[in-house]
Amino acid sequence: MTYYSGHPRILIAVDCIIFGFDGTDLKILLVKRAFEPEKNKWSLMGGFLQPDEALDEAANRVLKQLTGLEGVYMEQIHTFGDPKRDPEERTVSVAYFALIDIQQYEQQLSEDYHAEWFLLSKKPRLIFDHDNMMALAQKQLRYKAAIHPILFELLPQKFTIPQLQSLYQGVYNTVFDNRNFTRKLLSTGLLIKQKEKDKGSSKKGAFYYKLDKRKYKANFQAFLNFVPKPDKFL
Questions:
Q1: Same-domain check for residues 80 and 38
Q2: pLDDT for the residue numbered 75
Q3: Burial of 69 (0-12, 13-18, 19+ CB in 10 A)
Q4: Residue 232 resides in a domain
Q5: pLDDT in tens, 11-33
Q6: pTM here?
Q7: Strands 91-101, 73-80: parallel, antiparallel or unpaired by DSSP?
Q8: Is the same domain home to 11 and 101?
Q9: pLDDT tens digits, residue range 126-137?
Q10: Which of 9, 130, 137, 220 could connect to 97 by a Cys-Cys bridge, CB 3.0–4.6 Å?
């Protein structure tokens, strides 16, 4: 204890980059900061690590406070420790990204944080180094989505192939060939075709599919890469 007592105390925070999909667009969830510095500016959702918490527990607590959701996909991506990143006090932040289906919880957002969804291309400037956090989260998301079926975490239980293609195009900010995308997607064997169609997007309609969760779990680490030349997006 004598050795420890001579060292400075440093705050540890967790910040969550929350990606959501509304069936058409990929979005980011931001909150308005309620205190100085940078009061009323847009921010990622975050909080301080409590003495009795592990980092993952803190990140899940922060997410639940904002959305009411538990057990969603969340991944730690990086630790940000620049001494000047927070002008108020020396704070090290551990960043996570989370993936959620917006339609699952539209009514659950806490009003306490003035949360709002933004298109990735139209988000405002964020406080501190949060823009850097988000850029790194996007890069990590693109990397993981190119080799694993991670983006299914953003979809509802039933979805169409055009919806899934729209999601991938939003993540990679590009346009995929419809036939090649569909062919490669169906070749994975992860989808179960349903009898009903979504006729809201076209007169002909598009069949709904469900994810084969057994195959999803079994093949998560050996997913067929159907994103062409993923390195160019990273």
A1: yes
A2: 95
A3: middle
A4: no
A5: 999 999 999 999 899 999 999 99
A6: 0.89
A7: antiparallel
A8: yes
A9: 999 999 999 999
A10: 137
